[in-house]
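Researcher: I'm preparing a figure for a lab meeting and need a structural model of a single chain. I don't have an experimental structure, so a prediction will have to do for now. The sequence is pasted below. Please return the structure as C-alpha cells so I can convert it later.
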Amino acid sequence: MRKSTKSNKQSLRLRLKQSWRLRRKIIWVKAPDVAKRVRFLLSTCEITWVRPSRLHFIRSYYAKTRAVARIWGLNRVWQMALAEEPSYVIEVIAERYDQLSEIEKDKVLLHELTHIPKNFSGALVPHIRRGKRSFHDKVHQLIGDYLSKKQR
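Model: Understood. Here is the structure written out cell by cell.
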C-alpha cells in the first residue's frame, strides 16, 4: 500500500512538471487604448481625486485569474525606497476584457478607479468598507452617473 502512495506522488509530480512546461508565461504590454478610455471616463464622471499622469495601463495575456481587470498601487514603502510619488497600474486581462462590450469595459474601469482613495496615497480601497457608504454603492453611483451622461 505504501508503494502505491509513493508512485502516485511521483506520477503527480511528473504530471505537474509536464503541465508547467505547457503553460505559457504571462505577457504584459502597455495599453494606450485603455489609457485613452480612462481619461475620457475621468472627465465624463468628474473623478477629480485621480491624477491621470500617475496612472499606468497594462494589458496582460495568459494570466491565470478569474478577474477581468486588476489595480495595483505603489504603496508607501516602495514610494520611499524609490523616491517616487504615489502611482497606480490598471491591468486588464486580455482574454476577458477584450470580449466585453464598450459599456461593460467602462463599468470594469470605473470599478477599478473606485479602488483609488480620495487622498491618492498609493493605497487601495477594499471591497468591504465600514462607514456610511459601501464600496459597491460608490461603484453603482459612478456607473449610474456615467450611463445618464452617456444617454444625453
